[in-house]
Amino acid sequence: MTGTTHQLRRLALAAIASALAVSLAAAPPSAAKKKSAKLRVATASEVALGAQDPVAAVATCPKGTKVVSGGFATSTPALGSHWLNVHESQRISARAWRVSGVEIYAGSDKLTAYAYCDATTPKIKARSNTAVMPPIPGSGSVVQASCPEGTKALSGGFVSEPGTPTDLAMVSRSIRAGGTRWVVDATNVGAVPGGRNLTAQVYCAEVGKITKLFEDAAVVGPQGSLFTATTPKCPKKSTSRGGGFATSTPTGGLTNAAIVYESRRARFSRFGGATWSSSASAASATTSITLITDSYCR
């Protein structure tokens, strides 16, 4: 190879490298690495051992993501033997969702918190509202929290106070309403003198269209019968990024009530992972109540 040929080849390689550098520098922003829109799931579990044992589980999202919604599940309740009454399910920081409950009877139950995380949702704004439940056995309260103007409700949560076998608040609804609000219902089984607080939380952001899907199921006796309502699959190119539950208002204490022991993104169904599921147990032989599950798709 002559010196001239070698020099020409070096010049040609330099020109190609220079052109490639210019091409990469001029690439549009879309060519840069994008944050994944895939929803990730974080879980945490604790076990309550014996009557009046309080437990809390905190699920934490990976760094670089934020929690957009959350859910919970407990062991299947069996009234008179074991029942973990969930009195809190809420976002406690940008990356964490906490679920709390109290074991009502002498048995033991497992509590699991679910945090649903993504990296693409805009800044989330939290709003809350609190009401004092009347100190009357069997009475109920409804409280709702509203999003700031220009935002939509992504998800929500609830907080009440720990209870005892004869004195507790049972949450029967935690669900989106009107696109910009979150509504929580609870009923006194027994009553705290002076009343107990019930708080609704709503988590809001400036996002595009949110499609709501729902499913319902009849919850009927005998006591301990189990029922699940799982929503249909979300529309194409969307997934369930939040959900909620509601039952008919309990009457006569636990005489006609559905105990909701699970509300979370569905994993084991013919629909795949793009659904929301809620489960409830009939509290008595005379229970006749409707369980509703919502899924919020985007």
Give an overview of the whole structure.
The protein has one helix spanning about 5-25; strands at about 40-50, 55-60, 65-75, 85-95, 95-105, 110-120, 125-130, 140-145, 150-160, 170-175, 180-190, 195-205, 210-220, 225-230, 240-245, 260-265, 275-280, 290-295. With about 300 residues, it is mainly β. It has a domain at about 210-298. Strands 1-6-3-16-17-14 form a six-stranded antiparallel sheet, with no helix packed on it. The protein has a six-stranded antiparallel sheet with strand order 2-5-4-9-12-7, with no helix packed on it. Strand 4 (about 85-95) and strand 5 (about 95-105) form a beta hairpin. It starts with a helix and ends with a strand. Residues about 1-5 and about 10-35 have low confidence and may be disordered.
Topology:
Blueprint: H1 3-25, E1 40-49, E2 54-60, E3 66-74, E4 84-93, E5 96-103, E6 108-118, E7 125-132, E8 140-146, E9 152-159, E10 168-177, E11 181-189, E12 197-205, E13 211-220, E14 226-230, E15 240-247, E16 258-265, E17 276-282, E18 288-297
Antiparallel strand pairs: 1-6, 2-5, 3-6, 3-16, 4-5, 4-9, 7-12, 8-11, 9-12, 10-11, 10-15, 13-18, 14-17, 15-18, 16-17
Summarize the structure.
With 298 residues, this protein is mainly beta. It is built from 1 helix and 18 strands. The chain has a domain at 210-298.
